[in-house]
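REVIEWER CHECKLIST
Item 1: Sequence provided? yes
Item 2: Single chain? yes
Item 3: Sequence as submitted:
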Amino acid sequence: MNPLAKTEIARLDHLIALLVDPTDLDVVVHTTRKGIKRLRAFLRLARRSIGTTTYRIENGALRDTARLLAPARDAYVLIETARDLDAPDRVLLEFGEEYAAAMVVLESVSRLEAVHHLEAIARRWKLLVWHGPDAKSIGSGLTRTYRRGLVDFETVLTTPTASAFHSWRRRVKYLRYQLEVLDAPEEFLHPYADLGDDLGLEHDQTVMLAVCELHANHDACASLGRRSFERRRQLRAEALERGATLFDQEPESFRRTVEEMIGLR
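Item 4: Structure as written out by the authors:
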């Protein structure tokens, strides 16, 4: 079996074990969603080796699994974001009630459903003939991901909408996890991880703003929305500054740089 595939199958088994017997559901949900992102990043590296049809089936299965955990994670992040913005207690109380409801659904339905999804994925992956990802597949995956990240970066420069930043965030995170899978040097990987974190925080503020717009007549939410808008503005400025240094080359040049660092050239 390909060593990279073996590592990611072990990651699948680890995520299943975490969900089966969680000690801290918030941490487990966060860890599982991060792990699924890394698995999807790996599939993007393996796409040429395993074929487009298999890639689409497995990527879709992982995406659907992550969606089962999204409501609980979003409810938790909303509270944490509100605390960071010094939201009043009555707002935190309302968000806390929504969080509690999401956790009930997670514990009673979504967690076990996610376990079943991941178990089915693990069974299929263990039956696949994992000859790859080989060097050509890895190069193709890196080039594709970086190119899409570059296109999305150019889009947010000219059209800085919430959806444009959301798309760019996804590409940056896939690129970060691909570099992790390939064991790229920390000094090369960290800037992409930092950019992904900035864009994740930007997304949290966008979610907060959407919630505040739904409760526009709520005095506390109006004030919270203004603070959230300013924080998002700062995060976007920082992300664009980082992006200008990380997306400053042609995709093929980026691929060659990574290949040289990890010994594929």
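Item 5: Key structural point noted by reviewer: The chain has a mean pLDDT of 95.
Item 6: Recommendation: ____
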